[in-house]
Specification:
five-stranded mixed β-barrel, single chain, eight-stranded mixed sheet, aminoacyl-trna synthetase, Lys-tRNA-ligase_II, alpha+beta, aa-tRNA-synth_II, ATP-binding, 17 helices
Length: 507
């Protein structure tokens, strides 16, 4: 049922209105506190005697016929999102945290003159109130509580936003608590995220994976090519880095004998923010001993499809704008070099030199990255020529070796590594490797990365001696994968990344 705010307590339209309403509500708070000894509770009681939840009452009594009485007496609490005061009968719609609602009816006959007058004086939109009374259906068929008693559960000092003036995206992000109160999509997204995480854990559990936690504060950043956040530990008097990836610690776990391991946790990258990137984000990574990148692709497809089913009941999901997107079936696999060659109209190979690639990139308006190397140029060209045409979920296979320092060389194609990126909705959702486990080659790759860092590449990795020492104790051949949880929600819901994160970082 859609209702408008009470005309006697309109939602604020200007900052001045907000200040005026705040002053009025603060005065009510003072009077409630002064009257607490006589009336009980005050403006912020420790608790109220709730016996039933609004969603449960709706589930049990939602089909009552108009005018029906149950004889069932309950105590409920909720936020007032609509209020209409008449002479001898007041109506209020109370909303639970999940958005479900029930009507409260405060009548002179049931609560008495003093209690009714207190309701009219003290209750505003946004307040949490407790109502005790019988479950009935109103003459209009609205599930209701006919109150015999009520109390303020928590006095709202600031008014709710106008019910008909939708919050802007910026307003939703900055005041997510208001977004959750007034917008069903916000509440649905939170529930979808919880369902996705539960589904991911269930799928991993069915494959005998063990969930672990690895450090977020690290003495050496690694596991990805990204610029880190830097902080300082007073206790150790040393510089520390916020984790950019859990990879190097999860691989230590595999060395130690945890042969199927995964983690869902926070990563931090000191980079730009846009519709698909956030400086702080949730990441899933998993590693399987005696696996490879083909097996991790199969696992990733299963993880995503099961998550979609958990949210939508089907692998065909409906995005927020009404568009349907099919995540079902077997997903396409294409070669990076072959797909680039077909789209660009010339053959590209892992042996192409930087001097050959730069003029071609410039000719087609492709940005040449600083510290240009073969792999970065190939990936930039691929994004320019191929990425925008991908519609279905697609694994892009076999990347240049010089941009993938933690990945095993391809078993049959020189110059590339066994790595894939999964693209869904035109953005990268996940990545997977056949992991590099040879400590000698891994050291060589780290040294090459360190040379790039010395030249000013802030995303290049450093030599991680502790990780190399772990590899020297023997890591079994393994497959690994990583996937952004926020981006998985984007793929399932069609929302931007700031909508899928409950409280995203804002300026």
């Amino acid at each position: 049922m859609t209702t408008a705010p009470d005309a006697t307590t309109p939602a604020p339209e200007t900052e001045e209105d907000v200040h005026e309403q705040k002053a009025v509500r603060l005065a009510k708070r003072e009077r409630l506190i002064e009257q607490r000894a006589d009336a009980g509770g005050g403006a912020f009681p420790v608790g109220v005697p709730v016996t039933h939840a609004i969603p449960a009452l709706r589930a049990e009594y939602g089909e009552l016929e108009a005018g029906a009485q149950t004889g069932v007496v309950v105590g409920i609490a909720g936020r007032v999102v609509f209020s209409r005061n008449t002479g001898k009968l007041c109506f209020a719609t109370l909303q639970a945290g999940d958005g479900s609602r029930i009507q409260a009816m405060i009548s002179l006959a049931e609560v008495g003159e003093e209690s009714l007058a207190r309701w009219k004086e003290f209750v505003d939109l946004g307040d949490h109130v407790f109502v005790h009374g019988e479950v009935i259906s109103s003459r209009r068929g609205e599930l209701s509580i006919m109150a015999d008693d009520w109390a303020i559960a928590s006095k709202a000092i600031l008014p709710l936003p106008n019910a008909y003036a939708e919050l802007s995206e910026e307003g939703r992000v900055r005041s997510r608590y208001l977004d959750l109160i007034v917008r069903e999509q916000a509440r649905t997204t939170v529930r979808a995220r919880a369902a996705v995480n539960a589904s991911l854990r269930a799928t991993f559990g069915s494959h005998d994976y063990l969930e672990v936690e690895t450090p977020m504060l690290q003495v050496q950043h690694g596991g990805a090519s990204a610029r880190p956040f830097i902080t300082h530990s007073n206790a150790f008097d040393t510089e520390l880095y916020l984790r950019i990836a859990p990879e190097l610690y999860l691989k230590r776990a595999v060395v130690g004998g945890i042969e199927r391991v995964f983690e869902i946790n926070r990563n931090f990258r000191n980079e730009g923010a846009d519709s698909t990137h956030s400086p702080e984000f949730a990441m899933l990574e998993a590693y399987q001993a005696y696996g490879d990148y083909d097996q991790m692709a199969e696992l990733t497809q299963e993880l995503v499809q099961q998550a979609a089913i958990a949210v939508s009941g089907s692998t065909t999901v409906t995005w927020a704008d009404g568009t349907e997107y099919d995540l079902g079936g077997e997903w396409d696999r294409i070669s990076m070099y072959e797909s680039l060659s077909a789209a660009a109209g010339r053959t590209f190979t892992p042996q192409d030199s930087v001097d050959e690639l730069i003029p071609f990139a410039e000719q087609h308006g492709v940005d040449v990255p600083p510290h240009a190397i073969h792999g970065k140029l190939i990936e930039e060209l691929w994004e320019h020529f191929v990425k925008g045409d991908l519609v279905r979920p697609t694994f892009v296979m076999d990347f240049p070796v010089d941009t993938s320092p933690l990945v095993r060389e391809h078993r049959s194609i020189p110059g590339v590594v066994e790595k894939w990126d999964l693209y869904v909705r035109g953005f990268e959702l996940a990545t997977g490797y056949s992991e590099l486990v040879d400590p000698v080659i891994q050291r060589e790759r780290f040294v090459e990365q360190a040379k790039l860092a010395a030249k000013g590449d802030v995303e290049a990795m450093r030599v991680d001696e502790e990780f190399l020492r772990a590899l020297e104790h023997g890591m079994p051949p393994s497959g690994g994968m990583g996937m952004g949880i926020d981006r998985l929600l984007m793929a399932i819901t069609g929302l931007g990344i700031r909508e899928t994160i409950l409280f995203p970082l804002v300026k």
